[in-house]
Batch of 4 targets.
Target 1
Amino acid sequence: MAFYAHSTGNRDRRDWQSLANHLAAVAGGAEAFGEPIGIGKAAQLAGFLHDLGKYTPAFQARLAGSRDRVDHSTAGAALVRGLAGRGDDAVIAELIAYAIAGHHAGLPDMANAEYACLAERLKAFDEAVLDASWRAEITPNAQALMPTFDFGDKASVPFRLALLGRMIFSCLVDADFKDTEAFYCSVEGRTVDREWPSLRSLLADLLPAFDRHMASFGKPRGQVGRLRGEILAHVRDRATEPPGLFTLTVPTGGGKTLASLGFALDHAKVHGLRRIIYAIPFTAIIDQTAVIFRQVLGEDVVLEHHSAIEDDRRQGRNAGEADSTRSDKNKLKLAMEDWAAPVVVTTNVQLFESLFAARPSRCRKLHNIANSVIVLDEAQTLPRHLLVPTVKAIDELARNYGCSIVLCTATQPAFDERSLPEGHPLGLKLEGRELAPDPPRLARDLKRVTLRHAGAMSDEALIEELSREPQALMIVNSRGHALALYRAAKAAGLDGLVHLTTRQYAAHRRVILEEVRSRLKPKKEGGGRPCRLIATSLVEAGIDLDFPKVWRAEAGLDQIAQAAGRCNREGKRPVEDSLVTIFAAPDNPPPSEIKGLTGDMGRMADGFDDLLAPAALEAYFGEVYWRVGDRLDRERILDDFNFYPRSGTDFAYRTVAEKYRMIESGMVPVIVEGDETAQKAVRDLKYENIPSGALARRLQTYTVQVPPKARALLLDNQHVAFIEPEKRGDQFAVLQTPSLYQEDVGLLWENADYLKLETNII
C-alpha cells in the first residue's frame, strides 16, 4: 500500500505527496533550522516522526475523502521515547514527544484533567494501528540528542528544558509548514509569500547606509547634539564585547534608538549574528521606529510585525479534533510570520508571548530568535506580574541561544544582581555591560525639565490650565478619562485640540503625530501653531515629541520620567520654564497597579533631590520589587515546569500559554478601511492565492483592539463582519459601519457596559 502525506483533487493520486518524501523533507528542514542552535539532531528526529500516524489505513482513507476523525499526531510521540533509549537522550526524546503531539493542536500539558494531555494520549495509543512499512521508509536517528547547553543549577533545569522543548517544536512546525506550503504551491502553480535575504549578506551595504544617514544630520550642534554624538560613538565602540546581556541607559532625547541600531549592526557583523529584533511595548512606537529603520536601511530589509491579526482561537483539547477539523492545507491560510527577515520590529507582546506560547502559529518563529541581537526598547514597561518568567527567558536566550540582548531605556529597571538581594529571581549578571558612557553624568547633562506636584485637580481645573498654554501635552491613565477630557476641552472652545488613543488605528495615529510635530515646529518652519494634545500613556514611551509643558496624572516614577521626556526634548528652553506637572485625578482614580506604584514613589522620594536621576530610579524599582514580592510571578508559571530525573518531565505548556498574557484584557482586532491601502487589502482577501500572512502584514496598522464582548456585540449587530471566512477563518474582522469610526476620537461602540470596561484600559 502506498502512503501519502497530502492529497489533491486528482483521484488517480499522480500528484499526491508521498509520506516518506514529506517526512524526509521536514526532517531535513527541521535539522537545518535547529543546527545553528545545536539541536539539529533532535529537530531532525521530530521531523521524521511527526506524521508517523499517517501510516494507517484510516488516515489514508481521510485523504481520499472520509470524514472520520483520525489522530495522526500521537503515534510519533508514543514511539520516540522507545527509539531513544535511556539517559540524556530519553529526556530530549520526551521533549520531542510534546512537539510531535502538538504539531497541529499545540503543545500539550503532560497531565491535566483532559484527554488531550500527553500522558493520557500516550497511554491510549496502540502501535498495532500503524502499518509496519514505516520502518523501511524512514531511518530516524535517536542517538546523541542532548545539546551542549549550560543548564545551570538544579532549580534552573526545568525552565531551561521547557524552552528547549519549544525550540524543537518551532523547528518542527516551521519545517512542516514550509514543506506543506511548497507542495501545494507547486501543485497550484503559485509562489510562496516571500523570501528574505540574510542579515550577513546585507551588512556590507547596511553599515555604510547607517553611516550616511548619521552623517546627513551634519556636525552635532549644541550640548544635546554633542552628547548624542558621544553616546553613539561610545556605544559602537562596545560592539566587539562578547555576546550576552547589555544595558543602554540613556536619558530621553539622547538618541538611544539610532545608537542601539548602530550597536546592533556592528555587533552582528563582529559576531556573525543572524538578525536584529527590536521589541517595543506599544504599537505607536513601532510605527515610528519602523519608519526610521526603513529610512536608514531600506524598505525590503525591515519586517514590521504587530500582534494585531492572528488566528487566536483556542484549539480544541481533544487530540483528534484538531487533526480532523483543520487540514494541512487549511493551516496555510493562517496569518503567521516566521521572523526570517534580517530586521524585525515587533511588540513585547509578540516576542514574549511567543516564548511562552503553545500554538504552532505563535511558536513557528522561535528558532529564528536564536543568534540575534534583541533590543528591548523601554525595558521598564515589561509587565511586573510576569517579570520573573520574562527575565528568566531573557537570561536563557543569552545563555544558551547565542543572543545579545540590550535592555534599552531612559529608566533602567533594577535587574542588576548587584542591586538586588542575593539569589533574587530578577538578578542578571550585568556588571561591566553598560553601553552608554557614564549614565549619571548623562542624566545631569541632559536634564531639561522641572517637576511640579499640583495635588488633586478636577477636569475643569485641567482644562483651565490647558487654556492658558497654546502648546501642551496632558497624559492620563485610561482611554475613558482621555476621551472625557478631550470632549470637555472641545466644549470649552479650546483650539488646537488633538486626541491620541488606541481607539485609533496605528496608521491614523501616525498621521496625527506628524500633524502634532508640524504644529510644534518653530514659526519660521511653518509651526508655532496651537497644539493641545490629550492622550494616554501610549504617547510617553519613545514617541518623538517636544512640548514646552506637560501634565501627567499620578503614576509610577518610571512613567513620570517617560512623560518628562516629551517636554523640552531638544533642550532649547530653560529648565525652570519646562514644567512637568504631576496631578491626582480624584474623579478618575488610577487602576490599582498604578496606585501601588505612586505609593512606591512616595516612600522613596524624600531621599533624592532629583527624582529623574539614575540612582533615584534604581531605588524606585527596588521599592517596587520589594513591595510586589512573589507577585513578580503572580501566575506561578515557574511552578508549571517540573523535571524529575527518574520519571521525566511534567510540563504544562498549554496551561502556561493561557496564563502568560502581557495584555490581560485579551483584546481582539477590528480592521478599519481607513484609506485605499487598507481597502485594497480587504478586497484582496477574496483571492485565495494571496497568503493570509501577506494580507495581515498590510492590514496590521489598520486595526483597533477592542474588548472581545464589544466585538461580539458589533458582530451581532452587523457593524463588523468576518471577511471571506471560508478562505480566511475568523481572522479578518472588518468594520462595516464607517460612522462608528470618528476622525478625532477613533472607534466608538455605544453600549455603556462595554464603555465602562474601557476605563481601566490604557
Target 2
Amino acid sequence: MKEENTHIDDLILDYLTGEISEEGKAQLSEWLAASEENMALFARRQEVWMGAGQLVTNFDADRAFSIFRRRTMHKSENDEPKWGECYLSHTREMFQWAAAILMPLLVTSTLYFYLQVKDYFSEQIVVSTIEGQSSTFQLPDGTLILLQQNSRLTYGSGDFSRGKRNVEFSGEAYFNVESDESHPFVITTSDSRITVVGTEFNLKSRDGEKTGVISLDKGKVNIASLKGNSSFKMTEGDEVTINRVTHKMTNRHRTPEEVAESAMARNASHSEHPLSLEGIDKENGNYKMTVVVNKPLNPGIYEMNLSDSSQIAPSSSNNLFQSGKGTASDPYIIATTRQLCNMRYALVKRKLVYFALAEDIDLKGINWKPLNTYTNEYAHWISLDGRNHVIRNLTPTLSCSYSSFFGVLCGECKNVGFEDVNISSVGLGAGVLGGYIGHHTYPGTTLIENCYFTGRVSSKSYAGAIGGNIGGKTIIRGCCSSVDVNSIDSYAGGLIGKVHASLTMEECICLGSVAGHHAGGIVGGGYDSDTPTSRFTDVIACNRSVYGTLDSDAFGFTDLKATKRNVFHAKGTFLNGNCLNDGLSTAQLKEKRDSWRRQWYRGRASR
C-alpha cells in the first residue's frame, strides 16, 4: 500500500510539473475513478494547493490560466480572441472556477504538500570565502567544513531536515562528514559527484583549473565523473586526480609521510589569529606589547598584558573606530565594515555602550557572529543609531546561537535599515536584530525604532523578521519589514515569532510571507499564562501569504492578553492557501499608513 501511494504521489507531481506521460495520465485517471474517497480527498486539498504558490511570491493568474488552457483544452497562446474580454478582466475568477471542475488533476496528498511547502522555503544557502579568507562552519547535520579562500558551497536550507544531505561545491575545503549510513552525503562539483557516509577528506575543485583533487584521510568515498565514464571507490590514503580536459580520473595511494605533511599544512593554514609583533614596553611592572591582527573578519589593534592572567584586549577606542568614546553624548562612530566588526571588542558587561553609523556598511562575504549570547551571559548592552544609514548582506554564522545581528538585543536599535539579510538557523530563535529581543537580566526597556528590513529569515523554531522571541519588556515603533519568514518546527511571525514578555508595538507594517507550525502576519503567538498583556496600535499586516501547519492568523494571533487598536490586514492575503475576502484594500492600507506620525526610514522596504 505504501508503494502504491508513493507511485500515485509521483504521478501527481509529474502532472503538476507538466512531465506526465500518456501512460501516467491513464493510471492517474483510473485511480481517481476507483473510489469517491479518492475524489473527496483531493477535493479537500484543492484550495490549499492552489494557494501554495502564494507562500513566496505573488500569484501570477495570467500564467496559471495559460498553463491551465494548454494542459486541459490544448489551447495555444494564439487562441486569445476565443476567450474574449471576459478572460482579460476576470482571469483569476475563471481560473479558480475552471480548476474547481478539474480539481482531481490539480492537487496532491497532504503529506506531499507539506513537504512541498517546505521546499518553497528551502531556498539556497550560500557560504563563500574571499581572497585571503578561510572559514570554519557546521552544516545542520553536524558535518564540519573548513572552507579555504575563494571557495563556495551551496545547499537547500530545508533539505537537511528531511535527510537530503546534498551540496554543490567549488573551490577547496576539508570535509569532516557526520556519519549517517541511511542518508549519504553527496557533493556535486562541475565535473564530478562524490558520495560519502562518514569520513574526512580534502577536496579541491576550482572552476578554471585543469585538474581537481580529492585526498581521503579516513573512511570511504565513491567518486564518479559527470563528463566521462570513470569512477573509483576510494579507501583511506587514496588521492584521485580529475583531468578537466580529458575527463579521466587517476587514483594513487599516498605515503604516510604525505598524509602527515598534508595534515600539518592544513592545521597551519587555519591558525585562528595570526599576530605580528610591533613593539614591547614596560609599564607598572608589567610588559605590554602591541600586536596587529591580520585576520579579515576580526581586524584591529590590541594590547596584550603579560601578567599571570594574560589576555588580549582593545588598546583604545581610537584604534577600533573613526572616533567617539562610547557614551550617549559621544558614541563610537562606525564608517567601515572593519569598524562594524570591531563593535564586539568595545562591549563591556552590564554597561550600555553607544554606537552610531557614519556610512552605509556592506557585510558581504562575512560570517557575522552575534554580539550578545550565552557566551557572555547575555550581559552586553548595546545602543546602535544608524543615523539613516544601511547595513547590507547580513549573513550570520549558520551554527551560531540566536542567529541575528545582536544575538540577544538588550538596549536599542534605531534609524537603520537592514537590506538583503540572509539568515538560516538550525537552533532556537532567529531574526534580523535578535533571536531574543530583550532579556530578563536587562533592567531597562529594549527599544527598536524607525528601522526597516528586507531579505529572508529561516529557522528551526521561533523566527521573525525583527526577532524570534520577546524575552524582556520591549517597544517597537515606526518599523517596516518585507522579509520572508519561515520556521520549520514552531512559531513564525511577520515581525516577531513568539511573545514571552510585555510588547508595545506602534505604527508598524509587515509585507513579507510567513510559514510555520504557528504562523501570524505580525506575531506568531506563544503567549503563556504568566505573559503580561501587550499593546498593538496602528499596525498593518499586508502579507502576501500566511501559512500554518497547525494554526495561523491574518494579523498574528487571537490571544486575549493583548489590546489592539487600529490593527488591520490586507484583503487578498492568502491564509493557508485561501484568498481572504475581508480586510482592507492596498489603497485603504496606504491611507492608514500615511496618517501615522512616523514614517519608516526612507520607506525603502515598502517599494
Target 3
Amino acid sequence: MILNKKYLTIYFSIFLIACSFSQEERVIEVDSSSIEELEEVLVTATRTVRQLSSLPLPVQIISKKDIKHSNTVRLNEILSEQTGLISVPDFGGGEGIQLQGLDAQYTLILVDGMPLVGRSAGTLDLNRLTVGNIKQIEVVKGASSSLYGSEALGGVINIITETPKEGFNGTISNRLGTFNTNDLSTSIHYKKEKLGFAAFANRYSSDGYDLIEGDNLNTVDPFENYTFNSKLTYTVSEFTNILVSGKYYNQNQDYIASETLKGESDIYEWNAHLKISHEINEKWGSYFEFYATRYKANEFLNNENGDRFSDGFYNQLLIRPELRGTYELSENNNFIGGVGLNHETLGRTSFIIKPEFNAPYVYVQYDGNPIEQINVILGARFDSHNKYKSQFSPKAAFRYELSNKLALKGSAGYGFKAPDFRQLYFDFTNTTVGYTVLGYNAVSTAIPLLQSQGQITNVIVPVSEFENTLKPESSISLNVGLDYEASSKVKFNLNAFRNNIDDLIDTRVIANKTNGQNVFSYYNVNAVYTQGIEFNTTWKPNAQLKITGGYQLLFAKDKAAEKAFGDGEVFARENPNSPSFQLKKEDYFGLYNRSRHMGNLKVFYNFPKWNLDTNIRATYRSEYGLFDTNGNNYLDTYDDFVDGYAVMDFAINKTLYKNYRVGLGVDNLFNFTDTQNISNISGRIMYGKLNIQF
C-alpha cells in the first residue's frame, strides 16, 4: 500500500503534539515504581481460574483497558487487531473471525461461557456484539472440543461481561462518527452486602456506506440496533452464590436487493442464564447452570408496485442445562467434570421439516503439577447426538519451565463440528437464477420429486449415496511454543500450529436441471490443513509506554489439491487466448481467502500528569485470492489476487475533572478501500467520543 506523505506528516504531527500537550488541570501524582501490575487471569481454557502466564495453551486476553483506549465499539473491530485473527465478511453482510486460517464457522463464540446462536449462513455475525460492557475477551486457539463440544474445532472466543460493582455508580458514553455512525451506551451498577445488580443499554446506528458509485445500491444499508443486558447476583451464604443474567437484542435494517426490489430485515435475540455455585467443603465445589437463547430473523422484499416478492424467516432455539463439579486433590492438582444437554430447534425458510437436535454430553479434565516445573492438562468429552455419530474429544497439554524466564509448552487436541441444520435440511431453489440447493437429508425425497416434475435431465450422484449420515468435520490440532520473559519490561511468545481437518463438508453438483442450472448438495470431502507460526511481543519500558507487535505466517491447503499439482494434473493459461501449460507443486497457493502474512503493531502512551492517553494501531494483511480466475478450479500463483493492504487507526483520550473522558480518533487513517473485493472496510472514519461516570 502506498501511503500519502502529506497525510502521514499531518497525522504524526497531531500525534506528537498530543504527546506534548498540557494544560492547567488538577495534577494527580503517580509513583510508577509503586504500581504492581496484577497477573491476568483466564477461565475459558480450563473452565477454572488460571493465571495467563502459567497456561500450557495458546491463549490471549484482550483487556478492558485496551478496549477503552482504542475507542472501539463493536466486537469485530477489536478482534481484527489481534495476531492471527482476521475479520472476514460473508455474502450475507455479516462478519466472522478467521482463526489460525480456519473459517469463522469453526470458532465457538461465547458470552460469559454460554454459546451464541444464529449462524444463518454458517457465520455468526460479530457486528451484533457491543464492547461497551465487556470486562475482558479471552481467545483460546486450537481445538477445544474436549470442554466445549461442537463448533470449537478451531478455537473459542469468550466475552466476559461486567459484574456488579460495589456501591452505586454508572456511566454514559456516546461516540459519533462518519456515515452518521452513532454508538450510545449507559450502564448502572449497584452492590451492597449480599445483593448486586448491573444493567447496560446500547443503541448503535449508521446511515451505511457505498463503496461502488453509480450502482444505486449501498455496500451496507442503513440500520439501527439495541442491546439490553442485566445481571443480578445474590450471596446466599459464605458457600452459596446465585447469578441471574439476561440479554435482549433487536436490529432493523433496510434491505435493498436492486432498484426494484426493496424491503427490510429484522433480527431479535434474547438469552437467559441462571448459575448457582455451592462450595460443599474445602475440596469439593459444585455448579448448576441453565441457559436458554433464541435468535429470530425476518426479511422481506417488495417489488416496485408494493407487492410482496419474497419472505424469509429464521427461528433458532437453544436450551442447555449443565451440572459440573470441581475437586481439589491438592494445592496444585484439581479435577473438573460436567454433564449437560443441548436441545436445539430451528424453523427456517426452505426447510423440509422443523428439525430438532438433542445432544447429551459429559466431560472431565485434570489440571495439575506432577512436579513444580511441569503443568499438565488432560481432558476428554463425549458428545452423543440424535442425528449424527457420537464424538469423543480428548486433549492434552503441558508446560515446562526451563527457568524463571523461559518455558516450553505444547498441546494436542481433537475438535469437531457437527453438520448444521442448513447442511442437513435445506431445500432451496433460487427463483431468479433457477439453481437448487438441497440438504444432505433432503436429497432422497427432493430428487425423485424433481424428476417426477420433469425438472431433472441427469442425476450425477445416485440418491443411494445419501442413505448414510453426513459425518461431522473433525480436526487434530497441534500447538508447540515457548514463552520468554527477558525482563519485567520485555516479553515474547512463539507458537507453531497445525490443524488437520478431515471429512470437510463442501458442496458438489449432484444433478443437472432442464433449465440449464444444477442441483447442489453437501458431502464429506478429503482433508485440508492449516499450519504456521505466530509471534507476539510486548515492550513496556515504563508505566507510560507500551508497544506490542504480532505476526502470523500461514499455509492453508487442500491435500488432494497438493497431490494433483504434484502429479502434474493441473494446467493454467496466462490469458484466454494463450496455450495452457502444466503447473508445478509450488504453484499451488492454497485455500481461498487466506493471507500468507499478517501482522500488527500498537503503540500506547499514557500521560498521568495530564490525564491523557493516546495510541496508534496498525494491522497488515498480505495478498490473498478469492476466486479461481484461470479455469482450473484451484487457487494458483497465476490467478488474480487481492493486493495486500495496511490499516492504521489513531485515538487520543483525555480525562477532565475525574469523571469526564473525551476522545477523538480516526479509523483507517489513510482511507484504504477495495471496492471490488473488501466490503467490510468502508474508508476513513473520523469520530468523537464522550464518557461520563457517576
Target 4
Amino acid sequence: MAEDLQGIAKKLGIATRFTDAGLSRRDYDVNPEIIKFFIRAFGYSANSEAEIAASLQEIELERWKHALEPVYVVQENDIGLDLVVYADFRSEPVTLELTAQDSGKKIPAAYEVTDDGESAVSGMMTYFKLKIKIHTPLPVGYYNVKVNHHGKNYKTVLAVAPERCYEAPAMARKIWGYAVQLYSLRSERNWGIGDFTDLKALVRLCAEAGADVIGLNPLNVLSHDYPEEASPYLAISRLFLNPVYIDVEAVPEFEAEDTDGLQGLINELRHSELIRYADVYNLKISILNKCYLRMLGAKDQTRRRAFEQFCADQGDDLDKLAVFQALSHQSCDSDWGGWRSWPRQYQNPRSLDVAKFAEDNKEQVGFFKFLQFEADRQLAQAAEEVKKQGLGVGFYRDLAVGVGSDSAELWSNPDLFFKKAGTGAPPDAFFPAGQKWGLGTFNPQALKQEKYLPFIKILRANMRSAGALRIDHVMSLMRLYVIPDCSDLGTYIFYNFADMLNIVALESHLNKCAVVGESIGNVPEGFLEILAARNVHSLSVLWAERYNAGWGDFRAPEAYPVSAFASVGTHDMAPLKMWWFGYDIELSFALGLIPTEHEKNEAYHKRESDRWKLLNALDAAQVWPADNMRTGNFIYGEGYPEGIDEAVHRFMARTSSQVFLAQLEDILHVDKLQNLPGTDRDKHPNWRRRLPVNLEQLSGDVAYRRNIAAIKTER
C-alpha cells in the first residue's frame, strides 16, 4: 500500500518527503493522511489498497482517454503536440488547422506526423500516440488548433512562448528608481492615503532625478466592507484595482460642493500619522457613489458609453467581482463566515438566484463596476505620464502569490482551487513552526483543464500599465506548500513548471513587461538557474547579500548578480535607521516574536557585529560622502552615523545589478517598519505607515537631495 501511495503521489505531483528552509535543513516524511487528502482533492480514491490500486491505474490511463490535451504550451524553437488514436485507425491521415487567436487569421503550417509506437491498453481497446511536429515558424502567441483524424475533429489551444522573457531596452544599462508603497505617499492634496494622482507626481519627480523605474506594492482590490483589512497581499481579486487609490477630485463627475462640511475630516485624515483606512475608504465611496449617479443621469453620454465599453471589455470577470461585492455588502452584517456562509443559492455564481440578485441590484452592481472603470482610467493616466516623462521601465508592479479563501476569485470559480486547504510555508529560519496563510491555491490539474486562462488573465491584469512585474514567491511556478484546513502540516504540490514558465515568458513578451522573481524562502536546487536562463530577474537585498548564510561579511558591490533588481531591504524588513539601532529587535521581543531575554541579547550581539561588518564594507568601497567622512565607529551611544544613508545608497548604486531600487523610508530616515510578518494589526500597524515628507516638499528635502546625488554618482 505504501509503495502504491508513493506512486500515486509522484504521478499527481504530491511531495511525500521534503526539506525545510530552516538553518538546520530538516527533512520531513509527509504523513500518509495528508497524502491521501490531496489524492482525494485531485479526484481519486485512496482509502484502501484496492482503491489505491484502481486509482493508480486510472491515473496512468488518464492521458489515453482524450485525443488531445486541452492546451499545449511550447517554445518557439520546438512546436508540436500529440494525438491519441485507436489502434485500428493508427495509419489514417491527420490534418491540422491553425488559427491565430489575436487576429482570427488561419495560419498555413507545414507539419510532420510520426509514430514511435507508444501505446496503452484500456479494456478491450489499444491506443497509440502520434506526434505532430510543426515545422513552420510561428510568431509568439496563442493559436486555436483543429485536428482531423478518421473523420472526427478535435480541438485544442497551442501557446507558443519565446525562449526568454522580455526586457526593456533601458535595462541594457544600469538604471535606478524607487520602491514605494503607494498608500504611504503624503501630499498636500490627497485624502490621507497615496493615490493615482500622487503616483503621477512621483513619476515627474523620478524624471527630474533621472530615475527609470517605480516599484509598487500590489494594487489589487481588497475587501469593500472591511477596509481595515489592508494587506495588499490579501486581495479579493488579482484581476482588478483597489478603489482606495482613486483621486476623487480627479473624477470627471466630481463637484466641489461634494466636500462641503467635510474639509475638517479630510484635513484630519491628511495629517494623521497612520492611515485610517475605514475613514478614508468610506469617505471616498460616499462621494464616488454621487459621481456614479451623475454619470448615469448626465445629458452628455460620452462617459457612460466609455463605461459600458469598459464593462463589455472586462466581461464576465468584472460581472462576477461586482456581484460578489454586492452580495458581500448585503451579507456583511449577518454572515460572518464569508461567502461559504451565504444562503446556499448565492454560493454558486452561476445560479439563477445570483442572476436574479444581480438584476434586482443592478444599480449597486453597476457602482462596483464604476469603481473599477475609474481606477483603471486613473492608473492608465499615470502610465501615460511614464511615457510622457520618458522613464525607461516605468511601473514595476507586484503580483501576490494568492488570494484570501474568502475572495471573489474563489467564489467565481471554486473548482479551480483546492477545497478545504490553503497555501502556507514550511518551517524556516524566521518561522520555525512554519506559516499557515490559508491563501486560495490553484489545483494544477483544474488549471490546465481551463487552458491556464485564469493564470494568464492574472498576469495580463498586473502587467497592464507596467514595464516590469514582480512575481511574489516565484517558486509557486514550480511548487506550493499547501496545508489542509484540518492540519497544521502540509506538503508541496507541484505544478507543470515548464508550462507555467513558458506562459510567463509569453505574456511578458506580449505585454512588453520584464519579469522579476521573489525567491526568499525554500528554493529548490537548480531553480534559480532555470529562471536566469529564461531571463527572469532575481532580487538582491543588502541584508541578504552576505557570506556564510547571512552571518559573514557583506558582499562587495561587484559581487552582486548582474541580472537582479537590488535594494537595501523590502517592505518586510527594517529600514536602515531602524536596523542600525536594533529597534526591530526590541519590537519583536515586546511582541513575543523573540521569546526570551537571552535570545534578545543574542540578537543585539549579532546586530553589533553586523554593524561593524557594514561599516567595514562601506569603508572598503570608499563610498562615504566627501564632505561627511566617517570619523567614529558609532557603536556605543554615538547616535545615527551622519552620511551612512548616502554611503549605503552609493554602495548599492555601484553594484553590478542592472536595477537599483531605493526606498524612500531609508532616504528619509524612517525608523519604523511598514510590515512585521507574523503579526496582525492588533499588535502592529502593518501597511499603515505614511512617509514623513510630502511629495511637494520632497525635491527640496536635504536628505532626499543628498541621497539622490549619491546614487547618481554611480548610475
